[in-house]
Amino acid sequence: MSNLGVPELLIIALVLVLLFGAKKLPEMARGVGRSLRIFKSETAKLREDDDDTHTVQAQAQAPAQPQPAQPQPAPQIQAPPALSVEEQARQLEEQAAKLRASAAQADKHA
């Protein structure tokens, strides 16, 4: 099963269409795409955390050298943190649900 050719992929696609229907496939693909994006962002965060941990450990193991005193920069006002990808996806899903509900009500009244 290591070599999937065009005929095999077409058979798999046909089975998926028969199982889930043509209307559900784009929705499922979007869900898989969102899940992959979330997974990638989380793994990237884990890698950054690992890199930070290794850097701190390397600095702790290095012999301490006296550093010249430097003036501390003035504290800066930070903007509110940007929404995470998960929060943005959740908000978009809520907006889509509201739009679907209003479209369904409009269809009922029409």
Task: Summarize, please.
The chain has 110 residues and is mainly α.
What topology does this entry show?
Elements: H1 6-20, H2 24-61, H3 85-109
Principal-axis shape equals flat
- Rg (CA only): 25 Å
Number of strands: 0
Ranges where pLDDT stays below 50 over 5 or more residues in a row are none
H and E order: HHH
- What separation lies between the terminal Cα atoms? 53 Å
**What fraction strand?**
under 5%
Helical coverage, percent range = over 70%
Rounded mean pLDDT is 77
Total of helices: 3
Helix/strand-derived category reads mainly alpha
Main β-sheet description: none
Question: Oligomeric state of the chains?
Answer: single chain
Please tell me about this protein's structure.
- This protein is mainly α and 110 residues long.
- The protein has a domain at 6-60.
- It contains 3 helices and no strands.
- The radius of gyration is 25 Å and the shape is flat.
- Belongs to the TatA/E family.
- Part of the twin-arginine translocation (Tat) system that transports large folded proteins containing a characteristic twin-arginine motif in their signal peptide across membranes. TatA could form the protein-conducting channel of the Tat system.
